[in-house]
Amino acid sequence: MSTLLRALIVEDSDDDTVLLVRELQRGGYEPLYERVDTAEAMTSALEAQRWDLIISDYSMPQFSGAAALGICRQLKLDIPFIVVSGRIGEEVAVEMMQAGAHDYVMKDHMARLVPAVERELRAAQDREIHRRAEATMAHLASIVETCEDAIISETLDGTVLSWNAGAEKMYGYRADEMIGRSLSALIPPARRGELSEIRDAIERGERLEQFETVRQQKDGRTVEVLTTVSPIKDPEGWIRGASIVERDITQRRQQELERLKLIQELTDALARVKTLTGLLPICASCKKIRNDQGYWEQVEIYISHRSNADFTHGICPGCVQRLYPEYASRIQERKAAAGAAGAAALPDSHSHSHSH
Fold first, then answer.
1. Angle CA(289)–CA(290)–CA(293) in degrees, nearest 5?
2. pLDDT tens column, 238-263
3. How big is the CA angle at 213 (ends 190 and 192), to the nearest 5 degrees?
4. What's the CA gap between 114 and 101, in Å, rounded?
5. Which of 257, 58, 231 is nearest to 156 (CA)?
6. At the N or C end, where does the chain have fewer CB atoms within 10 A?
């Protein structure tokens, strides 16, 4: 099966163009081509679509291979550019290669064309893969550098290799202060045993996923972090170090402690309220309540010590009648007089006469 090849042919001769196309077809390609022989036509073709290959004659009445190569450089295109000419000397060929041409083939040695095309297409593909890899690495580097988490890499012995801006902000050390230094500077004395445990796990190829620990900042203060440690392997699969991602969870832990404290306070308050729902030992005469220590307390004192209730004091009508009978009688007389006055003010419906 033929391989599709989008080829831009810079050539003033139709016959030579046909020969080039046939040579490519014999090499297993299916050329989708366009022939141009002026700077304007070539520029339009390059702007109209993407080309896999440019094959250019060196000398033409209205154009030249050097000018065609110059257009590619001006447009910053990385397309395999092969010069095919019958009148090009070794010195000119070297100049074209130095200017950016990828290869040259003499028209009386056309058997070299297909191998040259195959080689330059592979090289162009490799360059594209390399560019994409570099772009990906630059993108990842930007993400690492702008990430608020501390992202650190170290050797197996704990020497810091990289230190991002998030690590600078979290720990207070600049990159130049930590790169080349042992990571033990971040470990509080009480947790130095973690280092050997982490290194043992990394040497076994294990990934330590999001464990909580404590690290020490430059000024001596501690910070609670959520840490993930992963082994770094070389292309042969040997473990050469570790990558560390640490997130400051101090504020989150403080919020959790406050939440737990609030839950405990609510639980305690609920327990205090529930103590009033059982049987209470109360005096049948004075109505005092016996507390947990065996002492008798006023009802309001007992309840206020075991709940958030507050008390106000007044006197009910029954107690007024029992304790202050004269005052209660005057109140009743005033109520009766007020009732009679109200009744007298109402119209009598039976006193009206009716005419027939």
1. 145
2. 999 999 999 998 888 788 888 888 88
3. 30
4. 16
5. 231
6. C
C-alpha–C-alpha distance, residues 190 and 162, integer Å: 25
* C-alpha–C-alpha distance, residues 229 and 243, integer Å: 6
pTM of the model: 0.52
Q: State both tokens at 52.
A: 């896999």
Q: Say if CB 148 and CB 169 are below 8 A apart.
A: yes
Kind of pairing between the strands at 296-297 and 289-290: antiparallel
pLDDT tens digit string along 57-76? Answer: 988 888 999 999 999 999 99
For residue 136, what are the contacts with CB-CB under 8 A and spacing of at least 6? none
330 by Cβ neighbours in 10 Å (0-12 / 13-18 / 19+) ranks as exposed
- The one-letter amino acid code at 27 reads G
CA distance 203 to 2: 50
Could you tell me the domains of the chain? 3-135 (3.40.50.2300), 147-250 (3.30.450.20), 278-335 (no CATH)
Residue with the two structure tokens 């990394």: 202
Sheet with 53-56, side-by-side order of all strands: 29-36, 3-10, 53-56, 81-85, 103-106
Measure the CA–CA gap between 329 and 325, rounded to whole angstroms. Answer: 6
CB count within 10 Å of CB 10 equals 30
Rounded Cα distance between 55 and 31, Å, is 12
Token look-up 């009802």 returns: 299
The neighbouring-strand residues paired with 233 are: 239
